[in-house]
Structure formats: C-alpha cells, structure tokens
C-alpha cells in the first residue's frame, strides 16, 4: 500500500491549492497532472488539430476525445511519481466508459489516500459553489462540473471525501492531514 496522497475532484475544488499546502506540510514534492498531461497524451497519439476540430464542434466532443488520453495519463503519472502529493486534473477521475474507468480504478486501488474534494455534501450546492468559483471559465465548465460532481466515478475512487466550503485552505489541509493514513508522520 502506498502512502502517496492523490487529490481528485471537479474543476475549482481546490486540488492544486491543497496539494501545494499538503506537500509543504509533509515536506514532499507536489505532482500536478495539469502540468504533465500533454506529454503523456502525446505518447499515445494525441493530435492538437483533431482536438481543435472537436473544440470547434462544441458540446462534449472535446471531452470525449480526451477520455482515452486521460485514462492512460493516470497510469503513467502514477508509475512515474512516488512519495508525493498528486493532484489529478478534474477529468482524470470521471469516465462514462467502463473500458476507460477500469484501468484508472485498478491503478488507484492500492492508494490508501485518494481524497475527493467537494465544496459541500449537497451535490446541487456543490455545483452552485463551483459555478461561482469558475465564473471566469467557459460556459460549458458548468455542465462539465455538474457531471464531475454527480458522476459515480469520483465516489468509487475516493477513500476519503473532504468538504471545503466555509473553510480556509489551511483548515481543509488540517482536516485532510487528520484523516490520512500515512507511513510518514507529520510534525
């Protein structure tokens, strides 16, 4: 069993912010999927021209195109990075297709510290809060976040859920630390 910490959740849930705080507190490196994903995607043929066509087509076309790359990237990132705090990009933990979700579920199974970050235990309230936090992002972010909040994938992967609304990042960090199963003890 690995004691790495993996943060999952929708766009704007606080994965990067809390990943940075946890890494600093535990004196561990932080590894962010958002910084590494494009290299992994390209390993299996990601094509920006196709992505642009999907983006211009609108709807879910781009997200559908990304899903196989996201599934692959999770396995690659977890193979490459150990002893760190990992924040997965929002889409990397939500899959409609079992053939894409199963490898992610399998590779995350040994991780005792998969933390789902959500604003609230109430799904509709979480969506509303996330929409407010992400008001500067494209309109389809609202639809995507609704999927990310309501989809069962995040809940199946998570070993722990932390609700962040009304708490400072430091308070959420402390809550996570108090509930983690770590082989390395904090000071």
**How many β-strand runs?**
5
Please tell me the total number of domains.
1
Strand content: 5-15%
Q: What is the CATH architecture descriptor?
A: 3-Layer(aba) Sandwich
Strand numbers in spatial order across the main sheet: 2-3-1-4-5
The coarse overall form would be globular
What fold name stands as the CATH topology?
Rossmann fold
Please identify the top-level CATH class: Alpha Beta
List low-confidence stretches.
183-187
- Mean of residue pLDDT values: 90
**Estimated structural class:** alpha/beta
Description:
- The protein has 187 residues and is an alpha/beta fold.
- The chain has a single domain (2-179), classed as Rossmann fold.
- 55% of the residues lie in helices and 13% in strands.
- Helix 2 packs across helix 4, helix 4 (61-80) packs parallel to helix 5 (98-108) and helix 6 packs antiparallel against helix 7 (140-150).
- The two termini are 22 Å apart.
């Amino acid at each position: 069993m690995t004691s790495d910490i993996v943060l999952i959740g929708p766009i704007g849930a606080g994965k990067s912010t809390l990943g940075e705080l946890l890494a600093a507190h535990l004196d561990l490196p932080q590894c962010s999927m958002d910084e590494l994903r494009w290299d992994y995607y390209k390993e299996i043929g990601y094509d920006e021209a196709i992505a642009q066509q999907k983006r211009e087509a609108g709807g879910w076309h781009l997200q559908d195109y990304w899903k196989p790359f996201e599934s692959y990237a999770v396995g690659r990132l977890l193979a490459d990075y150990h002893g760190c705090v990992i924040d997965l990009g929002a889409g990397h933990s939500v899959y409609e297709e079992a053939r894409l979700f199963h490898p992610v579920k399998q590779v995350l199974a040994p991780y005792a510290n998969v933390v789902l970050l959500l604003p609230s235990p109430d799904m509709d309230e979480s969506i509303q809060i996330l929409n407010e936090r992400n008001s500067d992002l494209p309109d389809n972010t609202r639809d995507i976040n609704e999927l990310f909040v309501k989809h069962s994938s995040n809940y199946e992967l998570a070993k722990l859920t932390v609700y962040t609304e009304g708490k400072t990042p430091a308070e959420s960090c402390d809550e996570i630390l108090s509930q983690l199963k770590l082989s390395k003890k904090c000071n």
